[in-house]
Prior knowledge:
Helices cover 78% and strands 0% of the residues. The protein has 13 helices and no strands. The protein has helices spanning 3-30, 32-53, 58-62, 64-85, 91-98, 101-112, 119-137, 149-174, 180-202, 210-238, 240-243, 250-262, 268-284. Helix 1 (3-30) packs antiparallel against helix 10 (210-238) and helix 6 packs across helix 8. It starts with a helix and ends in a 9-residue tail after the last helix.
Amino acid sequence: MKAFDIGELVLLAALWGASFLFMRLGAHEFGPVVLAAVRVGLASAMLIPLLASRGQLGQLREHWRGLLVVGALNSAIPFALFSFAALSITAGLSSIVNATTPLWTAIVAFVWLRQGLTPWRVLGLVIGFGGVAFLAWDKASFKPGADHSGFWAVLACAGATLCYGLAANATKRFLTGASPLAVATGSQFAAALLLGLPAGLLWPATLPSGTAWGAALALAALCTALAYILYFRLMSRVGPTNAVSVTFLIPLFAMLWGALFLGESITAQMVLGGGIVLVGIALALGLVGPKPR
Length: 293
């Protein structure tokens, strides 16, 4: 990647790292599904006028099927799952599990797009998912009456990252001809349509506070509208595997923001588990290990 691409990748990591902070601030009052719906609804409202000003609204109609798929897999489902996880676990832990996105992307590319996996990349997948299992192990308890919320939260994060892996490959498969802005706008609008009815049924009886609304607005404007413009632009320039490597950096920012603004602790298990995940990702992406001849 060029220096400009790397700069955008770091900015994107800082924005998406902050999203875990904002979900922690908003999920308890809105609820996971409603927060996700508000996030994508506000983001699409911000992006549609920008897309119209560039004369690209026709791309939404042209690529609506692909946008619906990517909207579900890249926004509607994972945003709700991560918001659910924010009810129980820290921003830093959620972001570490999120770092497995490149692993899922590689698996989906192998199954769907027939991209090869070397033995070293397979080893990387095993190590990466082993790191997630290590993080989730102390969250699981089989004692009667035990609180399983942390365990289910980690599994929700893992399900969200699987969706991201599917979405990255679906974008490459179905939306190659669409502009990055059209993909960002159309996917958020599709997600808003998908979440509209569930959010209406689950809307909280008590009006969320100003802090929760501020978190939702920041999620929409910074972590979604701006971030997805950067993400899909990067994907179009450097490909899905390189674009999803942003997840290497997200945990660093998420743990930093969580420690600074929420007083969250950074445990030895998080650092060790995160390190295992990153080693697995590096092997799975071919960044370390023997190079094919």
